[in-house]
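Posting for a labmate who doesn't have an account.
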Amino acid sequence: MFSKLLLTFLLVVSLLSGCAKYPSYSNHSLPGKEIRGLDKPVEESRKEASPHQESVLLRKDSSFSSEMTRPNFFILHPSSQVWKMYDDFFLLRKMIIEDLPHFVPETEYDIPVVLNSKVQRFINYFQTTGRDFFSSWLSRSGRYIPMMKRILEEKGLPADLVYLAMIESGFNVRAKSNKGAVGPWQFIKSTALRYGLRVDSWVDERMDPEKSTVAAANYLSDLYNMFQSWELAAAGYNAGEERVLEAIERYKVADFWEISEYALPRETRDYVPKLMAALIIAKNPEKYGFYGIDYQEPRSFERVKVPPQKSLKDIARVIGLNYRVLRDLNPSLIRGATPPYGDYEIKVPVGYAGVVASRYIELSKLPKFTIARGTIKYRVKPGDSLSEIASRYRVSVSSIKRANGLRGSLIRVGQVLKIPAGTSGGTTRKAISYRVRKGDTLWDIASRYDVSVSDIKRWNRLKSSKLIAGDELTIYPK
């Protein structure tokens, strides 16, 4: 035992003395790899050196401490184990041995992908508990990935960043989080406005697949130029760049796998491994047991301007198009109508732009869309609540209370309520029952059924997001 300890000590000492002969490297670069091309924009740096190589580029910037370039691990064998020495902020107080992450061949991916225990955990999850959810994500991906990849590549970004949208929303363009993030790329309102998206009481371009992808590409480009690492850029996309910058400054480490152990929220710690797991499976689904996925076809469409403040239902009727088709092509029109500020460009199936143009005068004579269109009657059923009814008819609880002179939220079975018609005409949705399985989250369930987390919480009177396996949830899928 003593001889083994002595041998280890001598080996570490020799490595330490040897390191003094070499220049400094970033915490996540391999010894022997120089760091160059750090001050160039993302498009130029990608041409000279791929940011997902084992030597990850670290920006040399005055805002970063020079101590960040001191190596904090030494490779004993390129394929086995690593001694990690936390020499700065841990004061040489411990050394630990851990598996060196296995790098997945770069020829298959254009962002960094490793296969370590954290990534493997999510691969296992997607293959088991999250299998149904992941299958639905794969199915929806067929509709959006070609367009999203094209936009990312036009912006000079890795096409595989498209799988951020899979993790963010499962490619659900109407996805809404309980934190106010909306759309396939899950923008909060402030970030959406910063990157040029319109968000108002008529239009929410966070739900527009093309426009939100352009905004996401610009945001990701800024994040990469800031961090010079796609892992950190992804972490910044999830947690916010300020949170990641604070972690880097605090721990003097510019490596996701390092700072995620100490300084990032759990959601962000899981975010990058989840992204890598999704990418690994999505690139080769059959290898991981996903057979016979029915991929949705990309939608071809034309853009054409229509008069302001017109109902999509009325427009569809005039041009002879199914309303659901027109609605699904224009998810950013949150009231189901064009906004009141001038002619508005909508998407229509290929071949319909000419029809719209030829009937523009007829469309302009349509009545202006108004939010309130009378009321309908609803008889309360066992298990109903005001929040459930309001969500089903897409109106607010307060509007139902006002229409019925209710002071509280108590209703009784058999009671007839007046329901103010919502912007969509107040169509109902049929309820289904869902049994919670081990590992399920509200976000997963909401993504699968194309509803929001807040919807599920209202329908089931949930005060928190905690779920228990075996519980029955009521869902009103779209």
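Reply:
Got it, the structure tokens are right above this. The chain is about 40% helix and 10% strand.
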